[in-house]
Design the sequence.
DNA sequence: TTGAAAGCGGTACCAA
DNA sequence: TTGGTACCGCTTTCAA
């Protein structure tokens, strides 16, 4: 049996209530006894039984985080941001990875919900995911990070629509007129919809009518990048491609290499995300870098503030981070 | 206030005890009432208060997992393995990321220890890490995964010593006589010690006296790989290099590319780990692939079995996964 | 098969 | 500043 507050109380010759007050730093007590109690707690190797504490308190300081295993890449960065702020503001993170297997997903989420949580932060969870329904039915505060959702759930993410303008402008200024968007053709996710719309509108702003064929690729993975090159073949019918995730862009890059297409001379690439992965390629990927750490920090702050309304949408910065995959073809 | 077992009991006109028995599937009850209760629980959106359950039970089914943020790469794969087995055997994982900042580390670990845990699984935590002391002092079962430790803590990992023989033999059979080991020079970690020793002994087995200069590089990161190439310069004094982690090997590969050294013609590379990262390079990295998923599964099984003695050391498979970074120079 | 009641370890209110 | 005490929600023993 582990050491309890009572054990300490006995040894110190005071009541459990006092020990509790001292160790939680709440209410009044004399510094003298406090010293003794803290010393004893340390000596006896006491660890608070958080379950008991949770049970007797109404407000929890635990924030659940749902991470799909398919997106662990940037999720890591968001989690780091959340960790830092959580540490600072004294919240605890309960991280749960969810697989694509929906049965397992639901079980995992249910066990999450069995803890009293302040809120659940969903990383890159979409309306179509089976867990989504479970979450909305349950009586928890929700927050979507990195993914804009409907206006029933507040979200923190990049402004995906505006981001596409930034990217298209950047490419346009480098002389590109024929551009492809790879990996955002999945019809459902709002993010994909926004990116497609942003892409099309941005092209129109420059008087370019978009070619529907150049919006291609459904899945958010490496293979999509490889396949895109295979599909269009050399010479490519466009001069620049926007990869909808770093891993897709790496696929594009390697696919181009395999097909003898030179990057950036024959193909310029801008990747969306800009995680550490982009540094590992040759050339280094030019990226529309999302500020994932900031998303994580804002998520914790928003939850701490209690100021989230269902339709709160918070946007974080995006910046073009120059690499070596965009050629100036003016 | 959330729905409790009592609410259900009231509505069903039975006692809380019965509801508990039914929902946990313990003890005896009639199938008829069980049906009603389950239905009611579902309708009312009931979620068990796990804190209360934990408090009243002695044995916990929660396994804490400590993941250093610096090693998230293969950690992901271990976690997936653990998740799968945990799901199967009905355990819950409580994942905590620990940063390099030791103050934060300790706080995180303490909050982990404040939950009643069945055990704590340490991924790639070393004896030198400040958390290690906290963990060993606390009254929890410990298990180290991916890292062999002393024989006070049981561990599940690859056989790092034998692995080096496999790699050296592989390179030897491809005609290599001058080999370097990059990124395993950190004096402390047992893994690094074993790899160095394995490397040296394996060379000796082939009658090769090792060159101390060729064991180089302390940190487990990308920069170490880049720096290694810079340090030795072109032409390299060895024909093959073993990268002590995928990210190091990618550094080697890119460093070589930057220096005009052709891989594998002028430099062969074998990487240790073989995570998904190895598939993203050109050429694809030849790897001594560790079976991380297996480590994760075994970890859960070992904890479930209760058969771990302090000096249990379990080894998982390693296999050479052929890529395109090793040339045959016979 | 079901119910009453004690208790898990803390917290917080109220009284001393 | 301290202590007594009634909970928090669930599990479990024992009795009905």
Sequence:
């Amino acid at each position: 049996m582990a050491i309890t507050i009572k054990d300490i109380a006995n040894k110190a010759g005071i009541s459990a209530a006092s020990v509790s007050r001292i160790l939680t730093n709440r209410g009044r007590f004399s510094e003298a006894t406090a010293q003794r109690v803290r010393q004893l707690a340390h000596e006896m190797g006491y660890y608070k039984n958080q379950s008991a504490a949770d049970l007797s308190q109404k407000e929890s300081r635990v924030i659940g985080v749902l991470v799909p295993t398919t997106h662990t890449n940037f999720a890591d960065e968001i989690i780091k941001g959340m960790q830092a702020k959580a540490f600072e503001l004294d919240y605890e993170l309960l991280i749960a990875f969810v697989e694509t297997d929906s049965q397992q997903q639901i079980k995992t989420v249910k066990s999450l919900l069995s803890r009293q949580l302040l809120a659940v932060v969903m990383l890159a969870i979409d309306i179509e995911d089976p867990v989504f329904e479970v979450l909305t039915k349950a009586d928890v505060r929700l927050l979507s990070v990195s993914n804009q959702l409907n206006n029933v759930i507040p979200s923190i993410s990049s402004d995906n629509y505006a981001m596409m303008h930034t990217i298209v402008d950047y490419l346009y200024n480098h002389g590109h007129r024929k551009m492809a968007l790879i990996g955002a053709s999945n019809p459902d996710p709002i993010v994909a919809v926004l990116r497609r719309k942003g892409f099309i509108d941005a092209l129109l702003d420059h008087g370019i009518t978009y070619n529907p064929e150049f919006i291609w690729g459904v899945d958010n993975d490496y293979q999509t990048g490889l396949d895109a090159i295979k599909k269009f073949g050399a010479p490519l019918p466009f001069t620049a491609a926007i990869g909808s995730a770093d891993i897709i862009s790496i696929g594009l890059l390697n696919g181009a290499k395999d097909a003898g297409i030179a990057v950036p001379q024959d193909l310029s690439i801008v990747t969306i995300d800009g995680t550490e992965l982009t540094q590992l390629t040759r050339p280094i990927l030019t990226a529309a870098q999302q500020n994932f750490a900031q998303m994580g920090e804002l998520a914790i702050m928003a939850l701490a503030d209690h100021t989230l309304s269902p339709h709160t949408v918070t946007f974080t910065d995006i910046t073009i981070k120059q690499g070596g995959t965009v050629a100036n073809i003016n």
